[in-house]
Amino acid sequence: MRPELVLASGSPRRRELLSGLGLSFRVMTSQADEELGRPMKPEEAVEELALRKARAVASQCVDALVIGADTVVVHERELLGKPKDASHAADMLRKLSGHTHQVVSGIALVLVEDGAVKREIAGHRVTEVTMRRLSERHIDWYVGTGEPLDKAGAYGIQGKAACFIEKINGDYFNVVGMSPALLDELMERMGFMMVRDFAKARD
Predict the structure, then answer these.
(1) Which structural domain, as residue segments, surrounds residue 8?
(2) Cα dist. 129→23, 83, 122, 165 in Å?
(3) CATH code of the domain in which 171 resides
(4) Using an 8 Å Cβ cutoff, are 91 and 67 in contact?
(5) Which residues of the chain have pLDDT under 50?
(6) 33, 63, 70, 184: which is the annotated catalytic residue?
(7) Which residues contact 199 (CB under 8 A, 6 or more apart)?
C-alpha cells in the first residue's frame, strides 16, 4: 500500500504546485524551529530547514511520505528570508533592485512506515534572478500591497512582482518555492514515481 503524501508547509504556492501536478496530498503545517544556530552555506541551510519541517510533521504520521521545503534569497552572500515588517521588506527590495541574485530552494522527503522513520533524503536547486532597477515609488506601492511580507526576499515572482523581473536563469518553479523536477527526482531515488504513485483518483 502506498503511503499518504503529506506537504509539511502552509505555503499556498507550494500547495498550488502540487495540485497543478494532479497529486493527492494533505497539508500539515510544520512548527519546526527555523533558527540555524551556526553559519551555513545557503544550500546547506535550505536542506537542513526542509528536513526539520518534514521531520516535525513525520513525527505525527503513521504511514506517509512527508515533503518539507525551504527557500532563501541570496544577494552578495547575504541570506534574505521573509521580512519582519514592511520597512524590512522595502530594504530587501532596495538591495535586489538592479541586481542579479540567487534563489535557493531545498526539498526534503521523510518516509514513515508504521510510525517509524524509514528513510530521509534532501536536495536543492539554485536559480538566478535579475531584477530591474526599481524606483522608490514602485517599492512603496509593492510593499503597500502586502504581498512581500510572507515571501523570502520580499517578492513573489508569480504575483505582482512579475513586472520587476528582467531575466531568470534556471527553474522558474524553484523561485516560486519548490522545483517539481527536483521533487520528482528525489521521489524516484526513494523508489516512487510521483505522478503515478500519488496521482489524485479520477471521479
Answers:
(1) 4-197
(2) 28, 19, 23, 7
(3) 3.90.950.10
(4) no
(5) none
(6) 70
(7) 22, 23, 24
Confidence at residue 31, expressed as pLDDT on a 0 to 100 scale: 80
pLDDT tens for each residue of 68-91: 999 999 999 888 888 999 999 999
Q: Is residue 203 part of a domain?
A: no
Residue-level pLDDT at 124: 97
pLDDT (tens digit per residue) in 107-136 = 999 999 999 999 999 999 999 999 999 999
Known catalytic residue at 70: yes
Task: Provide the whole-model pTM.
Answer: 0.90
**Non-local CB neighbours of 27 within 8 Å, separated by 6+ positions:** 6, 7, 9, 10, 15
Residue 114 located in a structural domain? yes
Sign of CA dihedral 40, 169, 12, 193: negative
Domain assignment of residue 202, yes or no: no
Q: What total of structural domains would you count in the chain?
A: 1
The answer to the question of residue 93 being in a domain is yes
Burial class (CB in 10 A: 0-12, 13-18, 19+), 165: middle
**Quick check: 153 and 90 in contact, CB under 8 A?**
no
User: What is the identity of the amino acid at 186?
Assistant: L
